[in-house]
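So, can you check these tokens?
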Amino acid sequence: MKFLFDVFPVILFFVTFKWGESHPQAAQSYTAEYLSSFISGGISSAEIAPILLATAVTLAASIIQITSLLIRRKKIDAMLWISFIIIMVFGGATIYFHSETFIKWKPTVLYWCYAGAFFLAQFIFKKNLIQTAMGSQITLPDIIWSRLSLAWIAFFVTMGLVNLFVAFQFSTSVWANFKLISMIAIMPAFIIVQSLFLSKYIEETE
């Protein structure tokens, strides 16, 4: 359920963009009706309308997501706050400047912020974020905690680079597909591989 909650805005972005891509005139109409006040110049082309509409839906979903946690007085992870701030900034810029460049950069900036957080925590503040999150559940040698942190840093840096490659070497439609796949397939696959790596150490501890 937490996974579905976290990827909810991404799924909405994908569904809205694909609908807008199939119905560009309708997407432009909705954009003109609901987003013209937020767009520089007040108008957008039918070509850019699907990405603007998808971005607006994602912004709304992210606000609802954070608001629901605040109302229920649930703890909001630092990573979720970072994601929220970045989508607000880059999503807002996408709509205002009616340019898909900003929203295409958003995943890369987010990935690299995550990588930077892990790097600073481990090498500057001498604190392992993976161990902080999972240390109460499993016991691992320090070297393994360090390798896990380095693996996540490498993963986030790589994903950021791959996102840029797909975003600017392929169509927006292909990039939207990749954006969804990265959240519901690539990242879970990386976590599964990590779990398999950890299994032998968990068994030894037990």
About this structure: DSSP finds eight helices and no strands in the chain.
